[in-house]
UniProtKB/TrEMBL annotation:
It holds the Pfam family YchJ_M-like. Residues 40-134 form the YchJ-like middle NTF2-like domain. Belongs to the UPF0225 family. InterPro entries: NTF2-like_dom_sf (IPR032710), YchJ-like (IPR023006), YchJ-like_M (IPR048469). This is UPF0225 protein QFZ26_003391.
Amino acid sequence: MPRADAALMPESATRCPCLSGSVFGECCEPLVTGARDAPTAVQLMRSRFTAYAIGASDYVNATWHPSTRPASLELDPAVRWYRLDVLRTERGGPLDTAGTVEFRAYFRAGAERGELHETSRFTREGRRWFYLDGEL
């Protein structure tokens, strides 16, 4: 099971950090904890955002395609990811082998506030989706 910062792990009945409208236990928790795989590219994108938000770097690494995964990844505990807006998706469904998700993710780091706007590419191998890369 991927590790997350216990202090940042939401209760199952609380709103999911990805802001899908579902509770954490029905949305990203089963993915981040390894109970099941993401069925679509956009759900993988949402669960990866949640992993960043709760400090689950093991999950971020596990869902990064081996061909583009960095040698190491350390999440900055001073950065708090608090909002995800999915702007557009292209393919990435349960029967696709590739998909694209455009999103904006918002963060705070001390007094600084910022956003990351990316168009991410995903690939599915077997039954598992992976983050491949993204264009800022």
